[in-house]
Amino acid sequence: MISLGEAQAFTFGGFTPLPAVELEVTSAAGYYLTGPVVAATDVPPFSNTAVDGYALHFETTAAPPVRLHLAGEIAAGATSQGVVLAAGSAVRVLTGAPLPDGTSAVVMVEDTRLEGDEVVVTKALGEGENIREAGSDIARGASLFGAGIRLTPGVLGVLTSIGITRVAVFGKPRVGVISTGDELSDEAELAPGKIYDSNRPTLLGLVAEAGAVPVDLGRVRDDKALLAAAFSEAARNLDAVVTTGGVSVGDYDYTKVVLEELSGGSMRWMQVAIKPAKPYAFGYIGGTPLFGLPGNPVSSVVSFELFVRPALLMLQGASATRRPVVSATAATAFRRRPDGKLHLNRALASTTPEGELEVRAVGVQGSHVLSGLASSNCLALIPDGNGAAAGDRVQVMLTDEIRGNL
Ligand code: AMP
Ligand code: MG
Prior knowledge:
This protein is an alpha/beta fold. Helices cover about 20% and strands about 30% of the residues. The chain contains 7 helices and 28 strands. The protein has helices at about 5-10, 155-160, 200-210, 225-235, 255-260, 295-315, 370-375, and strands spanning about 20-25, 35-40, 50, 55, 65-75, 90-95, 105-110, 110-115, 120, 130, 145, 165-170, 175-180, 185, 195, 215-220, 240-245, 270, 275, 280-285, 290-295, 325-330, 335, 340-350, 355-360, 380, 385-390, 395-400. The two termini are about 45 Å apart. It binds adenosine monophosphate and magnesium ion. Adenosine monophosphate binds near residues 183, 184, 198 and 295. Magnesium ion binds near residues 181, 245 and 246.
């Protein structure tokens, strides 16, 4: 057996970002930046008011209440050009409006009352109060973000605020998913000995969740020629291939033979010191990475999380490629025996009313047991030994949202 770290290091060594593409900001959510972006303009582009109120000279409010002459109005979107803020006067301004020259504070409408064409200011203001200075959010010339930053809604908003409409990002990998095994069927009525191919939709979903483009390559029978044709065609046309089944030690099918041949002997057949998902293969077919995941449904998902997902994020140029691993209180026991392996148990993380993270085991922990997977949102990482008792602290890898308090 080799450690998880060794298997990951072997896998990830060759993954570099795909070539860059240029996209409209409006359709670039979820892509990763190829490099930093330089702000060509200030944000906000001009000084403006943070509140609905009156632009004034802050010194005039030193001893409230004071009466100021109302000398005009500027709405958001209007210009302040030609509006003069004379001594002893105020100009009505609406949130976001530019300010007349000489403005040194804006009083909120709540701190005033209007009497005829006079504004009575009932509060003393400090210099700059309620003014958003030009460039106070982003200064022109600033270098923002960096290579590998994901275009989240917040980042897209910032790019747009500095006038960027097109952005250079790394491309998205097209990832083929192939199931192998003679036991697999898609007949409505299962013949004796057959099972449905549940891995394929699961893995296609995981590929999509990892931000890549899933390509359904169907299932292939344990037939040398069919397997060879399917794998070589997939490797020719796609950026990565994920296959399940036929990678275990005792496997009797042809997947191994065929992959060994097509990869020119570069496939490495690993026994990783983890449970589930011990058997795992990785190599290249003509430069295209191929992940050979175990057929057991839970194992294939755990393998995907540990090996495929980070690699797909690397192809997308992401700088952060790992799921969050955090500490939680075990709300149930996580029992196990020493076996030299790290156990990854399907579990449900939630927050207590106080906001503390806790985690409970779900379902039966067999590598063939799918039902627990569907109700889990994390993997509890239980190191070699005798497991954890309720109340112990355990590490969890979060793989989904948490039912929380807010
Ligand atoms: P293998 O890795 O081929 O030895 O398969 C291990 C177990 O996973 C066997 O019980 C298979 O029937 C099952 N299995 C393999 N492929 C799939 C699949 N695509 N969907 C569901 N179960 C599968
Ligand atoms: Mg098999």
